[in-house]
Amino acid sequence: MSELCVSSVSELFGCNVFNDAVMRERLPKDIYKSVIRTKTLGIALKSDVADVVANAMKDWAIEKGATHYTHWFQPMTGITAEKHDAFITPAGDGKVILEFSGKELVKGEPDASSFPSGGLRATFEARGYTAWDPTSNAFIKDNSLCIPTAFCSYTGQILDKKTPLLRSMEAVNEQVLRILRLFGNTTATHVTTTVGPEQEYFLVDKKTYEQREDLVMTGRTLFGAKPPKGQEMDDHYFGAIKQRVSDFMKELDYELWKLGIYAKTKHNEAAPGQHELAPIFTTSNIAADHNQLTMELMKKIARKHDLVCLLHEKPFDGVNGSGKHNNWSLSANDGQNLLDPGDTPQDNLQFLTFLCAIIRAVHEYAPLLRLSAASAGNDHRLGAHEAPPAVVSMFIGDELQSVLDALENGTTLKTAKQLEFEIGVDALPNFRKDTTDRNRTSPLAFTGNKFEFRMLGSSDSISCCNIIMNTIFAQIVCEFADELEQAESFDSALKALLVRTIKEHKDIIFNGNGYADEWLEEADRRGLPNLVSTVEALPRYMDEKNVRMFEKFHVYTAEEIASRTEILLENYSKVINIEALTMLDMAKKQILPVSVRFTREMCESVIAKKAIGLSGGAEEQLAVQLDKQTTQLYDAMQKLENTLVLAQEYPTDAVARAKHYRNVVLPAMDAVRKPADELELLIPASDWPLPPYSELLFNV
Ligand code: ADP
Ligand code: MG
C-alpha cells in the first residue's frame, strides 16, 4: 500500500465513486438534472437519458482502469452477488470497441436459479432481473464498474434485501410527511431514515486460522479449552492498537474512503483480538450497501496482512461475541433530525409524537424486531449476558422518562434548571436531551437523537432490521395521522393520543439492567415476548398482523414473507448441519487419533513401570482420565451422527427441521465438545492437533 499524506485524503475520498460531483462534471446539464430527479424523487429515467448516463459512466470507469461492469445486488444469501461482463463488443474487423448501453445500465438478467427464493421461483422460470437503484452510486471495485441494483423474479416477486428496504423507506417518507404537515411544516418535502452501523469483528493470524478446520468451514471454533487468560482483565477495550492491526485498519480506511464510505471511528473492543469500525451515518439504503462493502473489504484486506477477519457472532466460547449496532434516525430535507428533541415547545411536541409512535411500534411489533436479528450465529449471543436479552424492550433514559411520566399523569415537571412546567400542548419544558447513555444492556436505546438497535449480529445484513424498523414505525405513524387528521382540535387530540399511547405502551420501556435475571421475570409479568432462539422467533414473521402491515405498505406480499421465513429457517438448519459435520470430521480425524495414541503411550509406560516393580503413578492416573474422556468423546460422536440422520426425517417441514437442529443436534454437539476440551487439557500441546485459544486470541 502506498503511504498517503493526510492532505490527500480529501482527494482520495470517493475517487472510485460515480457520484454527484462526477456526474455534474461529465453529464450535459439537462441529463444531470434528470438523474438527480430520479435519485431524489424516484422518477424513472427515460431510455435516451439512460444511454447518455451509461456512456459517461463507462468512459469514467475505463479511465479508472475498469474493463468490466456488473450489476451488484443483495440476494437472500446474506452476501452480495455480482456477475461481470466485459465492456467489449466485436467491431467486425477482428478488433473490439468498448460499449455500455442505457439498457445494460438499467436492467440485467442474471440466471437466478441458484439463488435462494424460498419456493418463489420455479427452476423452469429461472430468470430473474436486476434493476438499477440510482439512489446508490455506482462504484469501481477490482476493475469492475459495480452498479447497485435490486433483484426480482421474472414475475416481479422480490428476491433481495434492497427492494423491500427502499419500499419501507418510502412508507416512512409518506407517513411522516403527513404528521409534519399537521404540525404546520410546509418546507419539508422528503423524509429519509438514516443509519450508522457500528461493526464489530475479530482478527486472527492467518497461519493459525488455516490450521483450524472449524474456523475455515464455519467461522467459529467448535472446540477449544478456555485459555488461562480471557478478557477478564479488561485490558483490550480501547487499548493501544498493535502495529499489524493498525496497518490493516489504515489500509481498510483508505479503501473504504475511496468507495465514498465514511469510515470514522476505530478502536479495540472488549475481547482480545476484537475491534470495531463505525462510519458516519447516511441514508439507510446507502448505509446498507456500504456496510456490505465494509464487511467484504474487511475480509479481503485482512488477508493482505496475513490476518483473517472473523465476522461470526461467536467465534470463541467464553469470550464476548460480535454484534452490530444499528443507529437509526429520521431526517427531513429541510434539515431537521426528527428524533432530536429540539429547542422550542413545538419542536419538543413533534419529537414526543415520533417518540410515542416508536414506543407503540416497538411494543406492538416486538417479535418482528427480535426476529430481524435471528440467526444460528447470533443465537449464541442474545440473552447470554454479553449482548441484549432476547426480550425486546427500549431504554429512553431518566430525563425523557420524567417527561413521559409528567405527560401521562398531567403533572408538572421540574427541569434541570428547576423551573416548573406544566406539560401541555402549548407549554412543554425545554428538556435537555440525555446524551450520556451508557446503558449498554438495552436492545434499543435512545441516545440523544437516534435509536440504537443492539441486537443485530456482526455478520447480518442491516437491511432486515431496518426494513422492519421502518415499516412498523410507518404503520403507527399512519395510525396517528389517520386519527389526528380527523380531529376537530389538533392540539387536544394530540395530547389525548400521546397520553393514551404512553399509558398503553409504557410496558415496553425498561431503563434498568437488561442483563439481570430479574428483568426476565419482570418482562414476563409485563407480557413481553421472550423468543429465546431463532426457531421461536422466525415463524412469527407470518403472524397475520405482520403480514397485513407489510402488504399494506407494499413492502412484502404474504408469499414473499413466507419465502423469506423459509429461507432463513433453512439457512439456520444448514449452518448447524455444516457445523456438526465439521465437528465430526475434526473429532474423527484429528482429536480421537491423538487421544487414542496418547492414552496408549501412557498405558505402555504404566506396563513398563510395573514390569520393574514401580507403581503406575501419574501415568496410570492420566491413562484412566484419558480413557474416560476418549470413550465419552467416541460415544458422543456416535450420538451426534445419529441426530444428523434423524434430521432427514423432516424433508419438507422447515420449522420442524430447525427445531430438531436446535433441540437435538446442538446439545449433541455440546456433548462432543466437552470431553474434547478436557482432552486438550490432558494432552501435551506439542501433540494437540489444533492451535489453542491462547494462540488464536493473543497471537496477532
Ligand atoms: P457509541 O459507541 O457510543 O455508540 P459511536 O460513535 O461508535 O458511538 O457510534 C455512533 C454511531 O451512530 C455512528 O455510526 C454515527 O454516525 C451514528 N449516528 C449519529 N447520528 C445519527 C443519526 N442521526 N442517524 C443515524 N445514525 C447516527
Ligand atoms: Mg454504539
**Major sheet:** 9 strands, mixed
Shape: globular
Runs in which pLDDT lies below 50 for 5 or more consecutive residues are: 416-427
| Small molecules bound | adenosine-5'-diphosphate, magnesium ion
Helix proportion of residues, in percent?
A: 40-55%
Mean pLDDT: 91
| Annotation, overall tally of beta strands | 20
Structural class, by secondary structure, is: alpha+beta
Number of helices: 22
First-last Cα distance: 20 Å
Oligomer: single chain
Strand content: 5-15%
Give Rg in angstroms: 28 Å
Quick structural overview:
With about 700 residues, the chain is an alpha+beta fold. Strand 8 (about 140) and strand 9 (about 145-155) form a beta hairpin. Magnesium ion binds near residues 198, 325 and 452.
Task: Describe, in plain words, how this protein is organized in 3D.
- The structure is a single chain.
- Helix 6 packs parallel to helix 14 (463-486) and helix 11 runs parallel beside helix 15 (490-505).
- The longest helix has 54 residues, at 558-611.
- It is globular and about 100 Å long.
- Strand 2 (68-73) and strand 3 (81-86) form a beta hairpin.
- With 700 residues, the protein is an alpha+beta fold.
- Helix content is 48%, strand content 14%.
- The model is unreliable at 416-427 (pLDDT under 50).
- The strands form 4 sheets. Strands 10, 11, 12, 13, 14, 15, 16, 19 and 20 form a 9-stranded mixed beta sheet that branches. Strands 1, 2, 3, 6, 7, 8 and 9 form a 7-stranded mixed beta sheet that branches.
- Residues 198, 325, 452 line the site of magnesium ion.
